[in-house]
Amino acid sequence: MKVRGLLVAVAILALLGGAVWWSNRAKKAEEGKPRPDEPPKILALAEDQLSKIEIRKKDAEPTVVQKNEAGKWEIIAPQALRIDQDAISSMTSTLSSLNADRLIEEKAQDLSVYGLQSPALELIVRQKDGKTYRLLVGDETPTGGGYYARLEGDPRVFTIASWNKSSLDKSWKELRDKRLLTFDQDKLIRVELVAKGGTIEFGKNAQNEWQIVKPRPLRADSFQVEELIRKLRDARMDTSITEEDAKKAAAAFAKGTQVAVARVTDAGGTQELQVRKDKDKNYYAKSSAVEGIYKISSDIGDGLDKGLDDFRNKKLFDFGWSDPSRIELREGGKTTTYQKTGEKWMAGSKQMDSPSIQTLIDRLRDLSCTKFAEKGGGAPLLEVTVTSNEGKRVEKVIIRRQGNSYFAVRENEPTVYELEAKALEELQKAASGVKEAAPQK
Question: Which residues pair with 340 in a beta bridge?
């Protein structure tokens, strides 16, 4: 009986092993096969292996884009132009993995019924290894929402989604880089603006922060400088305008009043943008980086129509969001010092209440002038010294009162800042509100 049971167990084990083997074999056979419900694949290419794309459309000259030696796409026909890298990336992404919505015919005999005998759109795609694919896109489907398509050499006819067709159906005007200034923002080292009031030049300091270097060294409002750079970066041409519109823009620019001249310098050199305004307050721009004159938005024009004070830093302290490690207040002959040790704020041997110290820091951070004054005297009212950035930044501000006016100066700087009485009152209230930490229970 024991031998018989053993034989039965061996037989069962063999059957189970065979079933597992057959299951694994069937699974491997299915690997690589598309799922029954998966849309048919028209193209499956490695995007980084694409080297050249030719776009042919009826009644239009072909647009040809190609990768240069640096591996960047550029337009080479009908003329050599910079390309919008985002636009070409969207196209190559669609091409490299182009799925059909559905298969229409396995072996189409009459391509003319689909508009594929003489297609409205052809894309010739070449890879680095020299292999070429020709994609043909024909008529729109009767129900809309899709287009007929086929790959040359493949007898099948598919439909593709309208958005796929839109991503591929591009002219050189749509693919070209539309920026009027093509500088690299990360490598920008100089910005110059000739606008109302004269010439302003911005440069970077040792902390990689924007500062005013002309007409004289001054602290700059980094946000306003970055906003100026953003306006220059966003100045773009409208490639859909007609030749007649282009002529009108050139005439308006020639007769217009100069608003600003901006120059930007990066590792590649200096580029210039001239902006003028006509009597109807329309703005036009001419760039040294691209040919032509283009109408630009009033947002760009207004953003360049600024003077020196618009870019000056109105805040008294530069520590920003880097919380201080030491604060010294001198008022009425009394000096109070708060020192941060670890996570605790101390005044001598006394631990101070952190929320009340934070309120003082917030008031110091937000302390700003209403305007810049030519001069401002009076008796010293309050002196504040703030140490931040791990002891590397020390800022000292002296606030004086002259009649009903309050003026502040930063140590070793000539600028005089005029303050509102309310701003000073809030600062003094925060300073007087600092208290000792409550005893631990």
Answer: 345
Report phi then psi at 138, rounded to 5. Answer: -105, -135
State residue 26's pLDDT score: 47
User: How many Å apart are CA 320 and CA 223, to the nearest integer?
Assistant: 12
Choose which CATH entry (1.25.40, 2.60.40, 2.115.10, 3.40.50) describes domain 326-432.
Answer: 2.60.40
169-210 residue pLDDT tens = 999 999 999 999 999 999 999 999 999 879 999 999 888 889
- Measured distance CA(305)–CA(26) in Å, rounded: 72
* Domain 41-175, CATH number (from 2.60.40, 1.10.1740, 2.10.25, 3.40.1350): 2.60.40
CA distance 248 to 244: 6
- Of 115, 167, 154, whose CA–CA distance to 138 is shortest? 115
Write down the pLDDT at residue 58: 87
Distance (Å, whole) CA 111 – CA 108? 6
The reported pLDDT for the residue numbered 318 is 92
List of the chain residues with pLDDT < 70: 1-38, 441
What is the per-residue DSSP string for 20-89?
A: HHHHHHHHHHHTTSPPTTSPPEEEE--GGGEEEEEEEETTS--EEEEE-TTS-EEEEESS-B-B-HHHHH
What is the pTM for the complete model shown? Answer: 0.76
pLDDT of residue 107: 93
State the span(s) of the chain assigned CATH 2.60.40.
Answer: 41-175, 326-432
Q: What is the pLDDT of residue 34?
A: 47
**Alpha helices for 194-221 (secondary structure H):** none
